[in-house]
C-alpha cells in the first residue's frame, strides 16, 4: 500500500482553488473522509464502491483515509468522485498512474462508471494552468468549455476506465484543441433579433441607442402590445461587441452556475436575462447555502430585462440598488465572503396603470382615482433614481406597421454606438470608468459642463415641468452621451433638450 496524491478543485464565487486529495490505506476498517467534506462528498464512498464492483476492481478491506487539503475549506458537491476513486486504486496498487499528480481531475461517477458533467469547469481550468499543471481530466461534456483555456491539455473522458487507461499509458487521448480567438471572432455578431424588423417606434429606437452608447439604464412605460418587450430583446444587438476578456468573464459566471449546458463553448454574445416577476431576491441577486450567482450576475456585461416592473416584489427590487451602484454583489456567510461581478444594463418596462391604458391615444383608462399613482409608487424613488432614461412608448399605427420601408438595421446603429463608446474610453482612460453612466457627481461637474444658455434651459425645464432634483445629474449624463453620438466636444442646447424629454417619471403630477 502506498500513499497516493492527486488534485481536484473547489470553486468559490467565480474563482477556483486547487484541492490536494491524499489517499492512504492502513490497517483497520472503514472509509474515512477528512477535510470538511459535505454530505455529497461523503456519499462518494458508496458510488465508488459500486463502480469498482461493476468494473471488477476491489475496494480495500482495510482502513481507507482520504484527506482533502486545505482542511479548513469546505468541500462541496459530487465532482470529487473521480479523483478519490483514482486515488484509492493507486494507493491499493491496482493501477500505477505515474503522471496522476500532473493533472487536475474532476468528475461525478454514475453507478455504471460513466461520468456526469460538473459545474465550474472553466474557472478550474484557468486555475490549473495558473498553478502549472500539465492538464485537466474531466467529463467529455465539459471538455469544450475547459478547452477555452490554452496551454493546458484538456482530456475529456466518458467513464472511469478511460481515465484509468489514459493515466496508465494504455490509451492515447488527444488533448482537445480549441481555437478560442477564431470561434470568438466568427460568432461575435451572430444575433437573431434585429432592429430592421421593427416598424415605427423611431423615438424608442433613438432612446435605446443613447442607452447603449452611454451604458444607461432605461425604463419604458406604455400600454400592452406597444412593443416594449420586442424592443428590449433587440438591445444586445446594438451594444458594442464583447472583447475576449469580457467573454471569458461572462463564460466563467455561467460555468459556475451550471448554465452553459452540454458541449458548451465560449459565450460570444452579450447576455440577455429576463426573469419572471415571481422571482425571489436570492434568485435575482445570488446567494444560497452554497453561494451561487443570481440573475444580475448572469447578466454581467449584458442586459437584465425586468418586464412588468411594478409586479415584482418590493424587497426583490430594493436588493438591486447596491449592485446597480457598485457593479458587483457581495454575498457574506459566517466563514466566507464571495464577490460576483454584476456590471449590467437594466432595462425595465411597465404599464402606466393597472389596466394599462392611461394616456392611451385611443382606449380609455378605467382605473379609479389614485390607482395610477399607487401603481407607480410600487417602484421606489431610490430605484428610479438609478434609471437614466424614462421613455413613453405609444402603440404603432396600422399605417406604420404596413409600410414597406426597410428600417435601420442593428449593425448600422451599432456602428454609431461603438464610435460614441470609443470617445468615452479615451475620455476615461486613466480611470476605472468605461461609460458615461458610471460617472460620479464630481466627474459630472468636470465632464458635463454647459454654457449659460444651457443652464437657463435646464433651469426653465426643471421649474416648468416640475422635475425633481435627482433628475439634474441624470440629464447631464444623458446629454453628454447624446453629444458623443453627435461627435461634439461640448454639450449643446439641442443635446440638453433631448435629454430633458427622457425624464417622464420625474415630472410632478405625471400620473395625476
Automatic annotation (TrEMBL):
Transmembrane domains' residue ranges? none
Question: What region holds the AAA+ ATPase domain?
Answer: 214-397
Protein keywords: ATP-binding, Nucleotide-binding
Q: Pfam family of this protein, just one?
A: Mg_chelatase_C
Could you tell me one molecular function GO term of this UniProt entry?
A: DNA binding
InterPro entries assigned to the protein according to its UniProt record, in alphabetical order? AAA+_ATPase, CHLI-like, MCM_dom, Mg_chelat-rel, Mg_chelat-rel_C, Mg_chelatse_chII-like_cat_dom, P-loop_NTPase, Ribosomal_Su5_D2-typ_SF
Task: Tell me which family the UniProt entry assigns to this protein.
Answer: Belongs to the Mg-chelatase subunits D/I family. ComM subfamily.
UniProt protein name: Magnesium chelatase family protein
Which organism does this record belong to?
Roseivirga pacifica
Amino acid at each position: 500500500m502506498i500513499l497516493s496524491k492527486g488534485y481536484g478543485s473547489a470553486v468559490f464565487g467565480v474563482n477556483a482553488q486547487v484541492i490536494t486529495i491524499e489517499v492512504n490505506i492502513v490497517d483497520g476498517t472503514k472509509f474515512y473522509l477528512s477535510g470538511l467534506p459535505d454530505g455529497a462528498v461523503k456519499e462518494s464512498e458508496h458510488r465508488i464502491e459500486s463502480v469498482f464492483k461493476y468494473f471488477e476492481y476491489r475496494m480495500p478491506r482495510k482502513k481507507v483515509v482520504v484527506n482533502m487539503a486545505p482542511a479548513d475549506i469546505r468541500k462541496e458537491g459530487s465532482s470529487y468522485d473521480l479523483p478519490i476513486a483514482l486515488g484509492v486504486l493507486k494507493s491499493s496498487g491496482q493501477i500505477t498512474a505515474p503522471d496522476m499528480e500532473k493533472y487536475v481531475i474532476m468528475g461525478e461517477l454514475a453507478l455504471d462508471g460513466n461520468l456526469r458533467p460538473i459545474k465550474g469547469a472553466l474557472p478550474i481550468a484557468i486555475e490549473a494552468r495558473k498553478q502549472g499543471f500539465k492538464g485537466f481530466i474531466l467529463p467529455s461534456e465539459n471538455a469544450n468549455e475547459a478547452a477555452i483555456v490554452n496551454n493546458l491539455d484538456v482530456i475529456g473522458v466518458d467513464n472511469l476506465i478511460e481515465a484509468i487507461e489514459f493515466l496508465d499509458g494504455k490509451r492515447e487521448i488527444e488533448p482537445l484543441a480549441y481555437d478560442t480567438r477564431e470561434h470568438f471572432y466568427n460568432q461575435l455578431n451572430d444575433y437573431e433579433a434585429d432592429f430592421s424588423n421593427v416598424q415605427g417606434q423611431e423615438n424608442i429606437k433613438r432612446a435605446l441607442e443613447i442607452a447603449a452608447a452611454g451604458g444607461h439604464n432605461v425604463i419604458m412605460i406604455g400600454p400592452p402590445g406597444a412593443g416594449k418587450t420586442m424592443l428590449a430583446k433587440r438591445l444586445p444587438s446594438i451594444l458594442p461587441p464583447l472583447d475576449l476578456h469580457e467573454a471569458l468573464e461572462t463564460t466563467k459566471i455561467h460555468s459556475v452556475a451550471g448554465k452553459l449546458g452540454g458541449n458548451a463553448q465560449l459565450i460570444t454574445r452579450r447576455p440577455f436575462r429576463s426573469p419572471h416577476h415571481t422571482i425571489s431576491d436570492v434568485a435575482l441577486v445570488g446567494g444560497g447555502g452554497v453561494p451561487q450567482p443570481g440573475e444580475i450576475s448572469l447578466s454581467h456585461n449584458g442586459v437584465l430585462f425586468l418586464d412588468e416592473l411594478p409586479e415584482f416584489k418590493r424587497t426583490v427590487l430594493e436588493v438591486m440598488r447596491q449592485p446597480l451602484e457598485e457593479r458587483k454583489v457581495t454575498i457574506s456567510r459566517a466563514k466566507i465572503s464571495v464577490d460576483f461581478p454584476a456590471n449590467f444594463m437594466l432595462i425595465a418596462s411597465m404599464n402606466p396603470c393597472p389596466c394599462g391604458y392611461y394616456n392611451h391615444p385611443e382606449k380609455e383608462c378605467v382605473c379609479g382615482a389614485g390607482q395610477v399613482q399607487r401603481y407607480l409608487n410600487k417602484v421606489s424613488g431610490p430605484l428610479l433614481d438609478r434609471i437614466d432614461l424614462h421613455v413613453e412608448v405609444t402603440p404603432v399605427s396600422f399605417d406604420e406597421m404596413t409600410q414597406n420601408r426597410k428600417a435601420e438595421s442593428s449593425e448600422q446603429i451599432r456602428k454609431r454606438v461603438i464610435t460614441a463608446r470609443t470617445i468615452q474610453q479615451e475620455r476615461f482612460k486613466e480611470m476605472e470608468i468605461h461609460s458615461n453612466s458610471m460617472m460620479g457627481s464630481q466627474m459630472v461637474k468636470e465632464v458635463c459642463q454647459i454654457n449659460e444658455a444651457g443652464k437657463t434651459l435646464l433651469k426653465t425645464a426643471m421649474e416648468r415641468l416640475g422635475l425633481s432634483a435627482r433628475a439634474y445629474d441624470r440629464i447631464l449624463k444623458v446629454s453628454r452621451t447624446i453629444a458623443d453620438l453627435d461627435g461634439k466636444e461640448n454639450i449643446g442646447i439641442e443635446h440638453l433638450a433631448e435629454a430633458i424629454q427622457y425624464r417622464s417619471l420625474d415630472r410632478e403630477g405625471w400620473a395625476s
